[in-house]
Specification:
By secondary structure, the protein is α/β, with parallel strands linked by helices. The chain has four helices and nine strands. The chain is globular and about 50 Å long. The two termini are about 20 Å apart. The protein binds 1-O-pyrophosphono-5-O-phosphono-alpha-D-ribofuranose (PRP), manganese (II) ion and magnesium ion. One of its GO terms (molecular function) is nucleotide binding.
């Protein structure tokens, strides 16, 4: 395996910034759902790091469930085609659902998931995303909690991949064009 440092251009969010922001968001989310049962729904695979850290910043416990959808394949462009690869384990009727995502890029993935979950008669559906690219939006997704708005550049790390690589980076960084062009 070769070093990944040479593939990165610059760090957009450091490990400290990510953890500090997730701690703030966890506090806000906890207050928002005071007294209610909250179900965290993660979107595989990108959201694994956000889910793990966000959940550990919550002042109390909340169950998690996972969905896997396909939209990107191994490339860098969104196709807009969404297919369920793995559905939720449990019924969400009457539940307060918080979708946990790593990034909203074009918005196509989350827009589709949100509509799909809303059709299952939950009590509510909200969205938390660590990253959002406002300049890349093709559809608006109602997003209550956003960690960081970032420029429209290809980023990897902290769950975000390029061709399944780089997910394990503790920070979010831009990927050098020589890697994907
Ligand atoms: C990435 C990312 C989001 C989605 C955002 O997932 O994790 O889920 O794309 O893009 P969009 O807003 O343009 O739809 P990807 O499909 O690459 O799968 P992964 O999470 O397994 O990497
Ligand atoms: Mn994803
Ligand atoms: Mg991906």
């Amino acid at each position: 395996a070769k070093s990944i440092e040479a593939d990165l251009v610059r760090v957009l969010c450091t490990e400290e910034q990510i953890q500090e922001r997730l701690a703030e968001l966890a506090q806000e989310v906890w207050e928002h759902y005071e007294g209610e049962d909250l179900l965290l729904v993660g979107v595989l695979k990108g959201a694994v790091m956000v889910m793990a850290d966000f959940m550990r910043h919550l002042p109390g416990s909340a169950p998690m469930d996972w969905m896997a959808v396909s939209s990107y394949g191994s490339g860098t462009k969104s196709s807009g085609v969404v297919r369920i690869l793995k559905d939720l384990d449990a019924d969400i009727t009457g539940k307060h659902v918080l979708i946990v995502e790593d990034i909203i890029d074009s918005g196509l993935t989350l827009s589709w998931i949100r509509t799909n979950l809303l059709s299952r008669s939950p009590a509510s559906v909200e969205v938390l995303t660590l990253l959002r690219k406002p300049d890349a939006a093709k559809v608006e997704v109602e997003t209550r909690w956003v960690g960081f708005d970032i420029p429209n550049e290809f980023v990897v790390g902290y769950g975000l991949d390029y061709a399944e690589g780089y997910r394990g980076l503790r920070e979010v960084a831009t990927l050098a064009p020589h890697v994907y062009s």
